[in-house]
Amino acid sequence: MSMIFFACVVRVRDGLPLSASTDFHFNQDFLECRKRLKALSSILARYPSRGTAKGRDLSIHFLSSGDIACMAICSSNYSTIMAFCFLEELQWEFAASYDTTSISLASRPYAFLEFDNVIQKVKWHFNCTSGSRAKVNWEKVEEEMKFQPPVELKLEDAELMNGLANGGHAEVHVEVVPTYRMQRVTPLGILSLVLNIMCGALNLIRGVHLAEHSFQEDHEVIGNVIAFFLPFLACVFQCYLYLFYSSTRKVKTFILFFLVCLCNVYLYGLRNVWQITFHIGVASLSSYQILTRQLMEKQPDYGV
């Protein structure tokens, strides 16, 4: 039967339960799945905000925001999108029920015993009704999952089985490379992209023009051609670093900025002081925008 069997709210950093549950099923598969859910809850901080741990008959889905995560055990044939609609609804209900900015979750971890009533109501709604409210969120969740697909885990992994014996602290095999959401693009960031593209185009045009007309007459201008092409590549990579997350982005940003400055100083004579200042200024603005745009996950949520 396609349905949701169990749901809970936990703290991401250590898996501390923030809700009680009256869901008790004596099926052995369910009991084993709950043990693995507990083990998985203790290592949620290692994974992106959305994930699925698939088993033969049962699956675990989790959705985290800030330091709060909602988890659910569903039958394996239950719609993944509907499961995340359920978790989003549960997350919204939890945020609406408790002012977590004024309640210390660390000192009052079991202050949310009564939230089980809300869990049961939402679970019943998704299991027993047509889910009209869920249909409203269906397209939104489906769109989000296209850009940020849930990480895929396996309940049968030996690492997770070993983690059950060691207090639930084990690695789980990851099948999908996690994606990262960046903060929204700002108007100043859009301006830096436009200026960067313009500078890159100017460098490319000047480099191609110089290569076509000078190689036949003077082979010593190859240094100038390279000095135009390198800033063009630097502009392209600066746009990429601003739009997408990359490891060691601070080091890469400084290297690209230094490359633009060095090449423009080398081109003094082919470019006047104002042109050089303009290109270096655009590179400075782009570098600043790259370094100030952070991952959304770094922003605190729920005040926890």
Distance between the termini: 37 Å
**What is the CATH architecture annotation of the largest domain?**
2-Layer Sandwich
- Whole-number tally of structural domains: 2
CATH class of the largest domain: Alpha Beta
Q: Strand arrangement, largest sheet? A: 1-4-3-2-5
Shape: elongated
How many separate helices? 9
Function: May be involved in vesicle transport between the ER and the Golgi complex.
Pfam families: Longin (PF13774), SEC22a_C (PF25970)
Subcellular location: Endoplasmic reticulum membrane
Organism: Anas zonorhyncha (Eastern spot-billed duck)
What this model shows, in words?
With 304 residues, the chain is of the alpha+beta class. The protein has two domains: 162 residues, Beta-Lactamase (2-Layer Sandwich), CATH 3.30.450; 106 residues. Helix content is 52%, strand content 11%. The protein contains nine helices and five strands; from the N terminus they run βαβββαααβααααα. The protein has a five-stranded mixed sheet, with helices on both faces. α6 packs antiparallel against α7. The longest helix has 28 residues. It is elongated and about 85 Å long. The protein starts with a strand and ends in a 12-residue tail after the last helix. The C terminus is likely disordered.
